[in-house]
Write a structure and sequence with these properties.
Elements: E1 40-41, E2 55-59, E3 64-66, E4 69-71, E5 84-88, E6 116-121, E7 141-146, H1 158-164, E8 178-180, E9 190-194, E10 202-205, E11 221-223, E12 226-228, E13 255-262, E14 270-277, E15 282-288, E16 295-301, E17 306-309, E18 318-324, E19 327-333, E20 339-346, E21 351-357, E22 367-374, E23 387-396, E24 401-413, E25 438-445, E26 452-457, E27 470-473, E28 476-481, E29 485-486, E30 501-504, E31 515-517, E32 529-533, E33 536-538, E34 556-560, H2 566-575, H3 586-594, H4 602-607, H5 609-618
Antiparallel strand pairs: 1-3, 2-5, 3-4, 6-7, 8-9, 9-10, 11-12, 13-22, 14-21, 15-20, 15-22, 16-17, 16-21, 18-19, 19-20, 23-24, 24-25, 26-28, 27-30, 28-29, 31-33, 32-34
């Protein structure tokens, strides 16, 4: 029931006067087909076969779609069509995997002693890989250590030999003695130091020669610029190692540590023996008390020839890294701390450690030394059976030149003259008396060269002037005597430096030509004001104007005649020249005068009138 005016639905009581309620009826109707709401599989086209020959696989995408849109595959209830199928192409060519050829013969050993390298090669051509075959597996180059026997005493270490090749070559305005530097950086680069100065390493070659040890205490070798592991059995890649006393694959059971202390106070200056370190000893460490001033270490070879003399000046720090034969000796001293000598690797020759005492060295040196040996190669004095007392020099009063030494008794082993404790000679009897015997020592031993520095002037350069007054200069360098090597100027006394300049007067200069003005010409006007001009030449005819001094005389001047009458004034005004000025830019008029266009074309002369006049006056 609805209201007629608005169509609003109301209570059915309002429609009772309208008569009986119409009956409700339902009829059929037909519209367009409803959309399908069921997702279905929509297969795509097959992709090309994944193989170019032989058996392969084809794939395709089969999405689940609903009214043209991809939906999750779980909404499609029908079985999914296949997404893969096998495919067959043309037959494939035969796949050939690479195989190695035989190794070549070993190359010649790079060294005759001290450990060189040998190499041999093989090629992946037996057969070579084809048609996608795999390359050969493994290394194509093999190396091995050869001639590893120790070189003769006095021979340089292989790395030291490579540094020594640059001795005497000019470097940074000087020449130096080069030794290896103990840098911890890439061990297969050739780091060297100047005159055993460890403060500044230099790379003299990008790589060391193949076969060089990476470190003195290791058997690893440098090959092609890289450190390769090498066992103590001299096989590249072998894990075999030396134990601490140098036994290959040893467990340290045969190692024997030797430790001792030297505390003898010496009032008389001279050299005093401390101990003898035999060949093949390892882990050598020797130290001296910081309070033992005016004394220093001396390391000598088996015959007593000094190899290293440590500085006596205890007030400065010293850090030396010195190659001696096949070993490297490090000497370090810091004021207030113990002096320390260490030897990296094994001792390649017999060393005698001595103490050099200068005047006033009465303090207990408190020297401690220790090293490790293989007990199977080392015999203690107790194992020997022949000892004797020997009178030996106790110490020389001078380390070089000539001095005096006293003589004392020493117990020695007859076999090799090794000094042992006096208790081994007790069964022989008491030590012989030396009396007051004294003899000359170190006669003919050259003292170290004391370097002096002086100024070295070069020749004077030519005079700066060809005539008249000039200046000469020269170079004055600071040099070290006696080699006369150039060094920094700070080593020479600036107060005695020769002069680097001096006046010079080679020849008197010839007389300079002068300006020669000609007579004044007639006035340009017949009455009133006008202009006069004259010719100005430099010296004789043909002399260029640049040869004369500055201040060229004027070539024009004004002239004043009697006052003109009215008729003459009109005539003069008509004859008066027009004003002269540059109509073009200054840069253009400069080019006009430079290329002498004023005389070539009237238009240029008119456009650059003032510049052309000045150019004519300069000629």
């Amino acid at each position: 029931c609805t209201k007629r005016s608005t169509g609003q639905r109301v209570d059915i009581a309002f429609c009772s006067a309208a008569g009986r309620k119409p009956s409700s009826k339902r009829g059929s109707c037909r519209l367009s087909a409803c959309p399908d709401n069921t997702p279905v599989w929509k297969p795509r086209s097959w992709k090309p076969c994944n193989a170019t020959c032989g058996e392969g696989v084809q794939t395709r995408n089969v999405p689940c779609r609903l009214r043209g849109t991809n939906v999750h595959k779980s909404r499609c209830t029908a079985p999914r069509p296949p997404t893969k199928r096998p495919c067959t192409m043309k037959p494939c060519p035969l796949v050939i995997h690479g195989q190695w050829s035989r190794f070549t013969s070993w190359s010649k050993c790079s060294r005759t002693c001290g450990g060189g390298m040998q190499f041999r090669k093989r090629h992946c051509n037996n057969p070579a890989p084809k048609n996608g075959g795999q390359p050969c597996q493994g290394a194509n180059l093999l190396g091995r250590i050869c001639n590893d026997r120790t070189c003769a005493e006095g021979s340089l270490d292989f790395r030291a030999e490579q540094c020594a090749q640059f001795n005497g070559h000019p470097f940074n305005s000087g020449t130096y003695q080069w030794t290896p530097h103990p840098t911890g950086v890439n061990k297969c680069r050739l780091f060297c130091q100047q005159n055993n100065d460890t403060s500044r390493p230099f790379i003299l070659r990008p790589t060391v020669v193949d076969g060089t040890r990476c470190h003195p205490t290791q058997n690893n070798r440098c090959m092609f610029g890289r450190c390769q592991v090498a066992g103590c059995d001299n096989v590249i890649g072998s894990p075999a190692k030396f134990d601490r006393c140098g036994v290959c694959r040893g467990g340290g059971s045969s190692c024997m540590d030797i430790k001792n202390q030297y505390s003898v106070q010496h009032i008389v200056s001279g050299q005093y023996p401390i101990t003898v370190i035999k060949k093949d000893a390892r882990l050598v460490n020797i130290s001296k008390s910081a309070r033992a001033v005016n004394s220093s270490f001396v390391i000598a070879d088996g015959s007593g020839r000094p190899l290293i003399l440590s500085p006596v000046d205890n007030n400065r720090s010293v850090n030396l890294y010195v190659p001696i034969g096949q070993m490297y000796i490090t000497y370090k001293r810091v004021p207030g701390q113990r002096e320390v000598i260490t030897i990296a690797g094994h001792v390649s020759q017999t060393l005698r450690i001595m103490l050099n005492v200068s005047e006033g060295g009465q303090t207990n040196p408190n020297i401690r030394y220790e090293y490790t040996v293989d007990r199977r190669r080392y015999r203690t004095p107790a194992q020997s059976d022949e000892y004797t007392w020997t009178l030996v020099a106790v110490g020389c009063s001078a380390t070089c030149g000539s001095g005096f030494e006293s003589v004392g008794a020493q117990c020695q082993r007859k076999k090799d003259g090794l000094a042992v404790r006096s208790s081994f000679c007790d069964r022989i009897g008491s030590a012989p008396k030396s009396g007051n015997t004294a003899r000359r020592c170190n006669v003919g031993v050259a003292c170290p060269v004391v370097h002096t520095y002086t100024w070295s002037p070069r020749s004077w350069q030519p005079c700066s002037a060809t005539c008249g007054q000039g200046v000469q200069v020269r170079q004055v360098r600071c040099v070290r005597l006696p080699q006369r090597h150039r060094v920094s100027a700070r080593f020479c006394d600036t107060a005695t430096k020769p002069a680097i300049t001096q006046p010079c007067q080679p020849n008197p200069c010839p007389a300079r030509p002068q300006w020669r003005p000609g007579p004044w010409g007639e006035c340009s006007a017949t009455c009133g004001s006008g202009q006069q001009s004259r010719e100005i030449i430099c010296g004789n005819q043909g002399t260029p104007a640049q040869a004369c001094p500055a201040g060229r005389p004027v070539s024009t001047r004004s002239c004043q005649l009697a006052q003109c009458s009215s008729n003459e004034l009109e005539t003069n005004e008509a004859d008066t020249p027009k004003p002269c000025f540059d109509k073009l830019a200054p840069t253009i008029c400069y080019l006009v005068t430079k290329f002498r266009l004023c005389q070539a074309d009237y238009r240029y002369r008119s456009a650059c009138c003032k510049s052309c006049q000045r150019a004519a006056a300069r000629q």
